[in-house]
Design a protein that fits this description.
This protein is of the alpha+beta class and 241 residues long. It contains six helices and 14 strands. The strands form three sheets. A seven-stranded mixed sheet has the order 1-2-5-9-8-7-6, sandwiched between helices. It has a five-stranded antiparallel sheet with strand order 13-12-11-10-14, with no helix packed on it. The protein binds biotin (BTN).
Length: 241
Amino acid sequence: MDKDFFKEEIYLKKIDSTNNYLKLTSFEDNIIIYTFNQTKGRGRRDREWLDFKNKNLAISFLIKSNLNPFWLICTASLALIDILISLNIKNCWIKWPNDIYINDKKLSGILAETVRSQEKIEKIIIGIGININNDFKDLQMLKNATSIYIEKGKKQNLKRLYRNYKNHLSGWLIELIDNNNLNLIRGRWKELNLGSFKKIKWVNEDKTIYGFIYDIKDDGTLVIKSNNDLYEVKSGDIQVE
Ligand code: BTN
């Protein structure tokens, strides 16, 4: 690898949640931490993220930036897709805004959290959980989950996979932050977001839109094309039709 975006890397033998750890400890920016034994992982919307010791990879990184966190979520997704492609896993895609799927099954989820002072974003913490060596039995109580082992039929070396992931993530972050190359990230994200070429249904509490993902704006707003109209949405859920 040419250049490492991260100034510091920490491996934790065991931790409740890698995101909590970064939130509660004062670190400089550009730090990455990881564990193979997360005991109380958190998901979006106060959901729990289930980890199995030595089968899942939990990673969090901290950046001090005023970028929209969406773009950091993108880099975390793109790095994982790079790994899946290098493992020859087909049909992997990004489900807006925070999930990575293989076919119709979820492999990985991302939780973005911000720490603000006086309304200004002070730091952004991005946490990604990846199912790696889980078998069917581990995941059977979860709806629609998969792992790299289930997809490939071969157990993975967790440490090696982490190293590869970090290298790819570092490359995307250098493009995004050091080189200011938002368009590169946007272009790749659009290629890999299934909603860009398959019909989607977007829903929130009181509205539903059917259409295609048309674009993503600099502030992370999603643009959906429905018939000939463009709709801009900032939250909600996407289902692929
Ligand atoms: C989701 O699918 O809702 C997001 C799941 C995010 C899980 C990761 S694992 C590393 C980091 N630490 C946490 O407690 N959560 C995130």
